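**User:** Everyone, produce a chain:

**Assistant:**
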Amino acid sequence: MVQGFPTDYEIHLFHEGNLNEAYNLFGSHLVENGGTVHTRFCVWAPHARKIRLTGSFNSWDPEGYDLTRINNEGIWFITVPFNATGALYKYEIESEDGKTFLKADPYACYAELRPNTASIVHSLDGYVWQDRHWQRKKKSETSSSPIAIYELHFGSWKLKKDGILYSYREMADEIIPYVKERGFNFIEILPLIEHPFDLSWGYQGTGYFAPTSRYGTPQDFMYFIDRCHQSGIGVILDWVPGHFCKDAHGLYMFDGKPLYEYRDQQHRENLVWGTANFDLGKTEVQSFLISNARYWIEHFHIDGFRVDAVANIIFWPGGDGGYENPYAISFLQKLNETVKQYNPNFLMMAEDSTDWPNVTSRAGYGGLGFDYKWNMGWMNDVLTYMEAPPDLRSSLHHKLTFSLMYAFSENFILPLSHDEVVHGKKSLLDKMPGQYEEKFSQLRLLYGYMMAHPGKKLLFMGGEFGQFAEWKDKEQLDWNLLEYGMHQKMDAYTKELLFFYKRSKALYELDNDPSGFQWIDVHNNQQSVLSFIRRGKKEEDFLVIVCNFRNHAYSDYKIGVPQKREYREVLNSDRADFGGSGHVNKKVIKSHEGVYHGNPFYITMNVPPYGISILRPVQKRKGQEQNGKDKMRSNVIGGGKGKQA
């Protein structure tokens, strides 16, 4: 339980912008007083003339429940002489101009089920965590570890009969085995803060400290995260510190004047989304947001944030020239530094579409301090290329290769996210040109290229089995597609690809180091074939990767290689079991002396149509093959200019 009365030190830190546990000062809390439990309420509203507490405990009659203003900066406080656990409540605020309105508690940890909007007195105590092993393991994770993220909208992944939502606890039973079986090691959930409108997907929130009651209680959400951790799956929340919902019961004009939002209308109003922008230069707002970040770490054991719309934060959203917001830059640096001081293993990921430099450099050295940045440039370029008719791809070859010009300037995540499969953009599968089988072939190629390209990986739900329709946020995924052969094979391919990624150090150990990547042939735009090498930390740990973006198979295709070794194909997206045409390399491929593609040796191989082929050097010791596992796996998977087959 918290103290009965706010301390001067807490109040000072809050107004200074450095109260990182403001959720212990504000909101509703149970306190002991003379051996009995009372309930304390505290709220910040500097422009209010009067505030009264109203709720189910007083039949929504606030008479006699006046809050006391305890400082000039607008902190108000009341203690009621009973345990109000479970009670609904709001603040009745009288503004300076005499208007009266009801507001939900900005710091409430639980709220009524929409469309109702009251806050609920609720204790976060009582849940016993079972994730010690996960917390110990997380300390050993580094940028040299594989990250494969499954992006998820909680309310439309799967529904019960009659469209009923799964609860947090029920979802644990449904999604954890599914995600684990497919090889993802993180779940990223679209915003789960309390929000009034389902179709905002959580991006227009009102209750920043309340996991939405659509799916259960805060303890139910703790259970979901705990179960994920016990299964070796991290949980990332989509977090929105840039703007908030303008609904009347929320933060907007909280005490009758701009408080959490900017004072001037130009910067306050986010016309694109119909929201209000947080005033990131206001110290009390900094305490609110940074405390919110810490709150999810401390009470819910969240493993990371995908920070939404960073471009909208670092540039003034109301400006017409895209000029820098210095308050926002300072806030992001402070946020990341504070989070890292509290939990060095917490992942901060910026969804940033700008070319702002040093997003993933330490704030102390002038960077923003994020761990990762979404590579929106790669995403846009590669999807533009893949959507183009194959006969036009030779002129768009640079769309595939340009990302390597800057791939090591930041720590990147390669996202194929929800934003790319809504609003008429089509699903990833339907974006692919050509006939039915060609669409699947190209989607397998796209996923293979993403896994082979430097950067961590993210895929939105439904992409793993080739959802044909774009995301329908009112319905569940089209699970019936898994009754069809090509979707079953797509699902099987995605599973194998993810497990291959996680067991291949060459694909992740040097993600942020240019020594981990080498072009073999970047110039073959006429045949739309790319070839390159990915390397791990050990000299012998490398992969030869060939991607063919045309529907032509090639035999005896000549590729330069760095070492005179025998090579075995360890992954081929064109294997028949994955819906392909079977252009694979079943036998060990021998290398020959002779400079080719700038390498001292070369091989000749089969290159699949619309496919990716990955080769690994055969390891020998005393005449015995040491990569027997690869040999077995190549029998399960299978794959210079060459002859067209």
Summary: Residues 631-639 have pLDDT under 50 and may be disordered. The domain at 517-644 is CATH 2.60.40.1180 (Immunoglobulin-like). The longest strand covers residues 36-44.
